[in-house]
Amino acid sequence: MTQAPQRVLVVDDEADLRELLVITLGRMKVDAVAVGTLSEARKALSEGSYDLCLTDMNLPDGDGIDLIRHIGSRHQDLPVAMITAYGSMETATKAMKEGAFDFIAKPVTLDRLRQLIDDGLDIRRQGPVEQTADQLIGSTPEMQALREQIAKLARSQAPIYIGGESGSGKERVARLIHTLGPRREKPFVAVNCGAIPSELMESEFFGHRKGSFTGAYEDRKGLFREADGGSLFLDEVADLPLHMQVKLLRAIQEKSVRPVGESREFPVNIRLLCATHRSLAQEVQEGRFRQDLYYRINVIETLVPALRERRDDIPALISHILARLCDQWNMPIPTITDSAHQALLRYPFPGNVRELENILERALTLSDGGSITDSHLRLPDTEKVHAEDSSNHALINTNPAIRPAAVPLEEFLQEIERAEILRALDATHWNRTAAAKKLGMTFRSLRYRLQKLSLDQGDEEEEESSGA
C-alpha cells in the first residue's frame, strides 16, 4: 500500500518566496499548500491535515506569532517554523518561546531550507515517545512541572538554558530533552566548559587539521561536528572566556564551523543545550558574559530545583539510587535504620542529588551489607566541627570512622580516599586541576588515584597541559 506523501502548509505574502518554497518541497517529494494571509492559513488548517507549517512573520492581516498561537491551541502536534527578516533575532526568539521549533532568516538559502523542512518532518514522523528508565525521580509539584516542561521542550529545536545548583541534575535534564526529542537517534555530546584549557578550546569545539599547530598529529572533527544531527550540551558555559564566546556565537548563528588550520567551513546541524550553576544574567551585568550570546543560548530557560526544595522526593531517590548501586554490585538491597533515614531527611544537601549518591555509595561500602545506620552515612554536619588550628581555621574530624571488622583495612582506606577525592571534585565541579590543588597533591598524583579507584573520566591530557 503506497503511503500518502507528507503535506506542508506554506504561509507567506510574498509570491516569489511562496513559489520557491513550493518548488523546493516538490523536489523533496512533499506536497505543499501555499497561502498568503493569516485567515487563509486558519481556513486551510480547519479543512485539512498537515505535517509541517512554514509561516512568515509579517502577514497582511496579522503576524506569524498569532498563527503559532493558533496552532499551539488547536493543532498541538503540528510542528511550525518561522520565516523572519534577516537579523531579527528578537522576533525569532519570541516565535520559539511561543512554540515554533525553529526559524529561518531571509534571504532563504536552499540548504538551510531543506534542513529546516527535514527537521520539522522528523518531529512529526517520530512523534512523542514514552519516558525511559532515565526519567527524573520524584513526585513533588516541582518535579511534575519540570517533567511537563521537558516534554514540551523536547519537540522544539530552540536553544535551551538549564539553570540550577551544582549536582542538581542539569545534565540529566539535558539528556532527557534529547532522548524524548526527534534527534534521539543522533549523538548527544556533553562537555564541561570549565574543564578545557583556554588555549585548547577552539580546537576542542571546532576541530583542527593535522599539522595546524604543535601537537596536532591528526585531523580532529571537534565537538560541534561530533554532535552533528544531534544535541550539544555545554555544561558550565559561564566558564567560557570572552574570546571563545565570540567564536561560539558565530558558530551558532552561521550554523557552521571552521576547524583550526582549515580554509573552509563545515555546516553543522545541532540542538544546543547549555547549563551553569551561576547566574548568567549577573555574569552579563558584570561584563564576564556577552549579552548577545546570552540572548542566543537563553531562548528558553528551565530551572532544576535544588534537592532541599523538594525534600519529599528524598525517600524515592534513596530507594532508586540504592537499587541501582546494588544491581551494579550484584548484592541485596540493604535496609536503612530509622535514625539514618531521619538524618538524610534533615541534611541540607548542598551538593544536591550528586551528593546524595556519593553518601549512599559510601554508606553501602562501609556497611555490612544488611543494614545502613547513621554511622555509615558520615554526614558532615554530624562528624565535623569548626576548630581552631595553629595556622588556620580547619575542619577536623571529631568522630573518626571505625573500621567494621568485616571490611579489610585496604578496602576501608580506599573508601576514605575515594570519599575525600569525590568531595574535592564536587567542590570544584569536577575540574581535576583545581581538585588536585584543593587536596594538596600534584595533578599526576590525583590522576593515578582516579585510575586506581576507577573514577577516571578521561581528558587528563587537556587538563594536565593547563599547567597542573
Distance between the termini: 65 Å
Number of strand elements: 18
How many domains in all?
3
CATH class identity of the largest domain? Alpha Beta
Strand order of the largest sheet: 2-1-3-6-7
Give me the secondary-structure category: alpha/beta
Which whole number gives the mean pLDDT?
A: 84
CATH architecture of the largest domain: 3-Layer(aba) Sandwich
* Low-pLDDT residue intervals, each spanning 5 or more residues: 382-400, 458-468
Under CATH, the topology of the largest domain is which? Answer: Rossmann fold
* Oligomer classification: single chain
Kindly state the percentage of residues in helix: 40-55%
Task: Count the DSSP helices.
Answer: 21
Main sheet, how many strands, which sense, barrel? 5 strands, parallel
Gyration radius over CA: 26 Å
What is the strand content? 5-15%
Which of globular, elongated, flat, extended, rod-shaped describes the shape?
globular
What is the CATH homology-level superfamily of the largest domain? P-loop containing nucleotide triphosphate hydrolases
Quick overview:
The chain has 468 residues and is of the alpha/beta class. The protein has 21 helices and 18 strands.
Properties at a glance:
468 residues; alpha/beta; Rossmann fold; Helicase, Ruva Protein, domain 3; 3 domains; five-stranded parallel β-sheet; 21 helices
Describe this structure in words.
The protein has helices at residues 15-27, 38-47, 64-74, 89-98, 110-126, 141-155, 170-179, 201-206, 223-226, 242-254, 280-285, 291-297, 314-329, 338-346, 352-366, 374-377, 380-383, 409-427, 432-439, 443-452, 460-464, and strands spanning 7-11, 31-35, 52-56, 58-59, 62-63, 80-84, 102-105, 160-163, 188-192, 231-235, 256-257, 266-267, 271-276, 300-303, 335-336, 371-372, 384-388, 393-397. With 468 residues, the chain is an alpha/beta fold. α19 (432-439) packs across α20 (443-452). The chain is globular and about 85 Å long.
